[in-house]
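2024-03-11 09:14:02 DEBUG pipeline.ingest accepted 1 chain
2024-03-11 09:14:02 DEBUG pipeline.ingest length=214
2024-03-11 09:14:03 DEBUG pipeline.predict start
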Amino acid sequence: MKTAQQLVTLAQQSTSSGLASSARSTSLKLLCDQLEHTQVNLAQLEGEIDTLLASDKEAKGLQSVPEFGHKTVAVLRAELGDVKRFHRADQVVAYAGLDIEVKESGKWKGQAKLSKRGSGRLRRILYMAVVRCIGLKDSAFGAYYHRLVARGMKGREAMMAVMRKMLTVAYRLLRTEEMYDPTKVCAGAVLQPPAVEAQHLHTPSSAKLVVIGA
């Protein structure tokens, strides 16, 4: 809302020189009004989402995951819906288009890639969650990513694997209504000073993650 108000003020203070300048000033004011109205509606919607999540018993487990912000929880909850319609975790993975498929014809066999069928919203929100957790020094999902990279997996492939891990964790939390247990994501992840780990893993955080007992 602050940005819209600043733009409106600038528009009001702008000097007009002719019809063209006057028209541009009017258009800018109208756009600023629309932006301010949209920001107000967005704030109201976010408040309603928070209220709904606070009273949603099934979402308690999701909200206990440190890497999941309220927007991530809201998208997971809305997109997955009633998780009891999924009998296995791999069905949820396929629903999000995070399953692997290999296109082949006759003797030709292509590379293994994500199917990308299903919910694009789920893939986007999980991707952003993975990007955030990679640099966190106390994230079990971040530790899982670094373990995969240390074993030779390429960064992008490791990110896709963490997205699948996040999704299956979310599925189980919704289905069982249990609280999040990071040890079930990446057992043995502990923090070490940067000097101990610097030669093996690379992460933007000030501390490094080491995974023991891989």
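2024-03-11 09:14:41 DEBUG pipeline.report Strands lie at 100-105, 108-114, 189-192, 208-211.
2024-03-11 09:14:41 DEBUG pipeline.predict end
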